[in-house]
Amino acid sequence: MIKVAVNGYGTIGKRVASAILAQPDMTLVGVSKTSPNYEAYQAQKMGINLYVTKESLKEFEEAGIKVKGVLEDMIKEADVVVDATPNGVGAQYKQVYSSMGKRALFQGGEKANVADVSFSALCNYDEAVDKRYVRVVSCNTTGLLRTLCTLNRVSKIAKVRGTIVRRAADPKEVKKGPINSLVPDPASIPSHHAKDVNTVLKDLDIVTMAVVAPTTLMHVHLLDVTVSSPVTKEDVLSVLSSTPRILLASGKSKVSSTAEIVEVARDMGRPRNDLYELVVFEDSVSVRVNEVFLMYAVHQESIVVPENVDAIRAVSGFADGRKSIEMTNASMGIGKGYLV
């Protein structure tokens, strides 16, 4: 059993912790919190071991939340630490992990140089095997890489041009915006997403643009992909529908928006309404000789969760990437084919 600690129990951390609890080959040492908010109370109710910083011990005691120990105790017990702290904080913790001889995963909010390799399970699982530090790329980059590495199986990709419509904030982030505007993110081109894709697909000709929209539900990507040889729409739909972690939203199902996608997740009984899969609007898939167009939605709160699980196995020396993906998908109910 791989003993895993999760440093940070927010949007990503709590989902990764739940995923670890579902794995047959992993055990959750515990999670860390810096303040006794509702997520800390929920972790306590779930019976998850809670660790805190020395500075916050008194605050947790006053809140009536029982803690297992301090952060260093949790790290000491773990084989692998999943760092799910806020952007930039993970890089500060790297020295702690290194001094204690622990392998660690970082999230996409950290710079690529924090780790030995940036990771996307369908693209470069093998590169992460036995590495000490792995960075799981961001939700948008995960969506891009999952799509591009799948399309690359039909015909080698020559060029990518993409536009990303980003959700402004996660549903719980009440202090963020924008409220009534579309904001270039940034106005200069390319956006950082193309650069991040190149940390995995290093020679790919890719340019992305991005805007932030006043929604909290999902991101939407619009891609124009040039491949090296002619393909058909049927070729593209076949590979998309047969690839785990990708779902097609059929026009016949009347699912035509991110709101309806999230509603389907609710109807499916998904924990926290999570969609670990990329959702491609089937009617958007169009082909002109060797140019492929498509639109898809990315659930920003959950798409990186299965990637974290696979990365845990990779740094622990589990060399069979396909088997890891199968194990993760089975334990979390992750599908392929059609959304409904």
Tell me what the structure shows.
This protein is α/β, with parallel strands linked by helices and 340 residues long. The protein is 33% helix and 25% strand. The chain is built from twelve helices and 17 strands. The strands form two sheets. Strands 9, 10, 11, 12, 13, 14, 15, 16 and 17 form a nine-stranded mixed beta sheet that branches. An eight-stranded parallel beta sheet has the order 4-3-2-1-5-6-8-7, sandwiched between helices. Strand 2 (26-33), helix 2 and strand 3 (50-52) form a beta-alpha-beta unit. Helix 1 packs across helix 11, helix 6 (121-128) runs parallel beside helix 11 (305-315) and helix 11 (305-315) packs across helix 12 (321-332). The chain starts with a strand and ends with a strand. The model has no long low-confidence stretch (mean pLDDT 97).
Global outline: globular
Structural class by sheet pairing and helices: alpha/beta
Describe the largest sheet.
Answer: 9 strands, mixed
SSE series: EHEHEHEHEHEEHEHEEHEEHEHEEEHHE
Strand content: 25-35%
Low-confidence stretches: none
Quantity of strands, as a count:
17
Mean pLDDT: 97
Note the total helix count: 12
- Could you tell me the radius of gyration in angstroms? 20 Å
End-to-end Cα distance, whole Å, is 35 Å
Specify the helix fraction band. Answer: 25-40%
Oligomer: single chain
